[in-house]
Amino acid sequence: MNESPKEPGSTGPLTAEANSVVRVEKGRANAEELAAVTALLLARAASTRAGEPQPAARRGRPSKAGWRRLERQHGFRAPHSWQG
């Protein structure tokens, strides 16, 4: 029983192309496009060094903007209004 290895989640055999690090799921990428994506991924990996703790996300500050969009407000608010 000598079966060829299968790609995880696939019914087809594992090919030399599927054994690469980057795989194009849809469309056809040329060598220049693959080089650009690879350079981007390597730069991203180099910027986040393994072993160093990542800074915690800011959770104390709300994500809501401190200003209001004037086009969504009524033209005038009376000074004695409850919305004031």
From TrEMBL:
Name under which the protein is recorded: Acyl-CoA carboxylase epsilon subunit
Ranges for region Disordered: 46-84
GO function terms (MF aspect): acetyl-CoA carboxylase activity; propionyl-CoA carboxylase activity
Lineage of the species this protein comes from: Bacteria, Bacillati, Actinomycetota, Actinomycetes, Kitasatosporales
Biological source species: Streptomyces qinglanensis
InterPro entries reported in the protein's UniProt record: ACC_epsilon
